[in-house]
Amino acid sequence: MTILFTLSAIGAQKQEGIFHHVIAHGMRAKLLTLFQLVRIERSLFSVTSLKSNFSNLTSSPLAIRNHLDHLAREAESRSLKQFLHDGFDIGLSYKAWEQAKEKNDFFILAPKLKKVVAGVRYLDEFKKAAMGFKSSYDARLDRLTPGMSSEVVDRLIARILPYRDRLQSIPAQYTDHQDTDFSCPKDTQIKVIKNVLQALGLNEDNTDLYNGNYHPLAFLINNRLKITHNINPTDIVQSVLDVVHEAGHGLFRLHMGEDSQNSFLNMTDMYYHGPDETTAFIFEQYICRTPEFAHFLHQQIKEAYDENEMEAPSFNQVYSRLMSDAGGLQRAKSCSTRYPFFLFQYYEIEKKLYEREIEVKDIPAEWQELSIKYHGWHVTDDPNQNVLQDPHWSTGEFGRFAGGYLPGLMMAAQMFETMIMQQPEALAEVARGNFTNIINWCKENIYTQDRRATFQDFVRHATGNELDPDAYLRVELAKEKYAPRHVLLQRPKHPPASCGLF
């Protein structure tokens, strides 16, 4: 979610109060974390503001970006009341999305979404002109992750799309969990989740866990991590994966530099979405999909089930469930072998909207067409799987899929490969519930990096190479059920040379 600079100047006691207000009011107050600063950015980065300060800038995009960041920090003095007023239009759009999803009718959202598109596109067209981007959409992608562009995404698509059928078939190869009942009481799930978090170094000394029907988020307030999540009553494994994703974000929040720990949500700032998602994906999609983590998780589930005199699923069933996903066309529940294809789908639509090749009213038809291209079949008439499945567009978060989740997943795969080649014993320790070496590696190579670096600098620092989609393909294809087990561990202890795509 986007960092709310405005709230970072509020005192510690008030921050706690606002957080508990968010928790108490659930989905409606969740808008506090979903507001994309469309109207705020219009005023904050206005033409007048830039013209009045342009004489102090060099012609380099980095200098302009740093200046924009300075202006953003100045905005911390804005009042909460003014902030909420500026976010009101986005709030109405989000509410329209909720109604549209409930009734499965995209055109309830369309009028509000049209205004949001006009707002974010207006801002990014100005940034294109001011900072010399090739397109306004490139300005949007770079705003989320420095250095990201349409050219980078297009190259990723060209490299990965030929493997679509092979990659997307992998989850279906794991069938041991089918017909297995993973449901269990809430208290049992919470016990397992707390044990997993404890192994990650997140305990009552530094973390507050909020269990209930919450959108999963990770906050850092007064040096305490606060994780909200939604218990899945029918699938304890999915509940664990959802929390581990947020724990990955939370570890980043706890271990990033002190200069980053003064904002209300302590998200990564507005230029760092890709690396932030890397920190979540490396745990949820990679470490937690290994046989070693499956062994650890199975032990935790078995102990909790035994206490309640319940029959626990077997190791094979737990591992099989970890390697599969919910199926269908639901992005948020898909595993990493299928996940990029959702991001490619969103990317094509967003790019066409920005370039005015399509209008908002054309999105449903475009979504259907791209579902064939990237998934091989038309979407069902299910709002959890069609174009209404995600709220991001209604809150102005254009570019988040291609500019945040996509580089985050690609970098996570590459860093995971590098990590286990550099310290292959780390996964064996995970089987015993010991994540110390993994977290220390992340501290050294990820958490304390310069947050103004480009994504290429970020991945190069951790792996020695620029972004390499072949690393993603190696890691994912090693998951094929009949591939040699631990095929990655049999590789040399040095990352392979870059494939040269970038």
Spans with pLDDT under 50 lasting ≥5 residues? 1-12, 25-61, 71-88, 261-271, 485-502
How many helices? 23
Helix % is: 55-70%
| CATH T-level fold name of the domain at 176-329 and 416-450 | Neurolysin, domain 3
Main β sheet profile: none
Can you walk me through this structure?
The structure is a single chain. The chain has 502 residues and is mainly alpha-helical. The chain contains 23 helices and two strands. Helix 19 runs parallel beside helix 22. It is globular, with a radius of gyration of 22 Å.
Fill in the keyword field for this structure.
disordered N terminus, 57% helix, 502 residues, globular
Compile the SSE list and pairings.
Layout: H1 12-29, H2 31-34, H3 38-44, H4 47-53, H5 61-74, H6 80-86, H7 88-103, H8 106-131, H9 136-144, H10 150-160, H11 164-168, H12 186-199, E1 207-221, E2 224-230, H13 236-255, H14 273-286, H15 291-307, H16 315-323, H17 339-354, H18 363-375, H19 400-422, H20 425-431, H21 436-447, H22 455-463, H23 469-477
Task: Give a short summary of the structure.
This protein is mainly alpha-helical. It has helices spanning about 10-30, 30-35, 40-45, 45-55, 60-75, 80-85, 90-105, 105-130, 135-145, 150-160, 165-170, 185-200, 235-255, 275-285, 290-305, 315-325, 340-355, 365-375, 400-420, 425-430, 435-445, 455-465, 470-475; strands at about 205-220, 225-230. Helix 13 crosses helix 14 (about 275-285).
